[in-house]
């Protein structure tokens, strides 16, 4: 009998966090999928595979529509669900409505998800930013979440398809107060959290906050 892989659904902190995930700094906005999960409608996107198990990030649906619109102006973000593309200054993620999920995309009630990401703690934000070196397009998002009295900010990655997956991260004393990490490879300035995407000579990585501590990491 063929083994059915079970996904893990992980909730982000808000619709704004989800809209930043699918729209901000992307060459083209990613598609958002609307479907039922745990008895409610959600918007979701698969962002990783952990030993063949889909890792899906989601947010509950607050409004029905055809597009998730994301705007960014003067350091201010906004998002809403709309029925049409009408403002050229905004980015739009098409919402694909799924009537019924196949078994491979339904989270199993008794699934313990024995596979886990291993932790790699980095020295500083500069080391975290350097992981994006060599990416011509928008780099992967950073995920941030609380852990005990600290905050972890990092990226999920593996070094070969058959090996373990890792969460390369830094530990912060407090919650990141801005939605992007600003950095430059051609000077000695330390990366900083920023809400401004228009400073010349800098690159940016978006940060996505989760609602709770990530459940698939080996913290031991």
Report the major sheet.
8 strands, mixed
Estimate the global geometry from the Cα principal axes: globular
Give the termini distance in whole angstroms: 34 Å
Strand order in the sheet with the most strands: 13-12-14-9-10-11-8-15
Give the helix proportion (percent range).
under 10%
Spans of at least 5 consecutive residues whose pLDDT stays below 50 are none
Radius of gyration: 18 Å
Please state the structural category: mainly beta
Tally of helical segments? 2
Averaged pLDDT? 90
Number of strands: 15
- The sequence of SSEs as H and E is EHEEEEEEEHEEEEEEE
Q: How large is the share of residues in beta strands?
A: 35-45%
Notable characteristics:
7% helix, mainly beta, 220 residues, seven-stranded mixed beta sheet, eight-stranded mixed beta sheet
Task: Furnish the topology, listing elements before pairings.
Blueprint (H helix, E strand, L loop, with lengths): L7 E4 L3 H9 L8 E6 L2 E11 L2 E8 L6 E7 L2 E7 L8 E7 L19 E5 L3 H6 L11 E6 L2 E9 L6 E8 L7 E4 L8 E3 L8 E7 L7 E2 L2
Parallel strand pairs: 1-4, 2-7, 8-11, 8-15, 9-14
Antiparallel strand pairs: 2-3, 3-4, 5-6, 5-7, 9-10, 10-11, 12-13, 12-14
Brief synopsis:
The chain has 2 helices and 15 strands.
What does this protein look like?
The chain has 220 residues and is mainly beta. The chain has two helices and 15 strands. It has helices at residues 15-23, 125-130; strands spanning 8-11, 32-37, 40-50, 53-60, 67-73, 76-82, 91-97, 117-121, 142-147, 150-158, 165-172, 180-183, 192-194, 203-209, 217-218. It has an eight-stranded mixed sheet. Strands 1-4-3-2-7-5-6 form a seven-stranded mixed sheet, with helices on one face. The longest helix has 9 residues, at 15-23.
């Amino acid at each position: 009998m063929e083994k059915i892989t079970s996904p893990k659904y992980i909730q982000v902190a808000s619709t704004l966090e989800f809209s930043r995930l699918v729209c901000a700094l992307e060459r083209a906005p990613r598609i958002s999928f609307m479907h039922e999960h745990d008895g409610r409608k959600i918007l979701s996107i698969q962002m990783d595979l952990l030993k063949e198990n889909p890792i899906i990030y989601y947010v509950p649906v607050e409004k029905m529509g055809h597009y998730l619109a994301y705007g960014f102006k003067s350091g201010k973000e906004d998002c809403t669900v709309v029925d049409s593309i009408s403002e050229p200054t905004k980015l739009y993620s098409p919402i694909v409505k799924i009537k019924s999920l196949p078994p491979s995309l339904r989270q199993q009630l008794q699934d313990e998800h024995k596979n886990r990401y291993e932790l790699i703690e980095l020295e500083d934000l500069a080391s975290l930013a350097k992981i994006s070196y060599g990416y011509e397009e928008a780099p992967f998002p950073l995920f941030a979440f609380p852990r005990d009295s600290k905050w972890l900010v990092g990226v999920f990655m593996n070094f070969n398809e058959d090996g373990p997956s890792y969460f390369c991260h830094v530990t912060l004393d407090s919650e990141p107060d801005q939605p992007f990490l600003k950095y430059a490879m051609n000077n000695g300035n330390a990366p900083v959290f920023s809400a401004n995407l228009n400073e010349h000579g800098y690159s940016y990585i978006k940060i996505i906050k989760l609602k709770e501590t990530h459940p698939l990491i080996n913290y031991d």
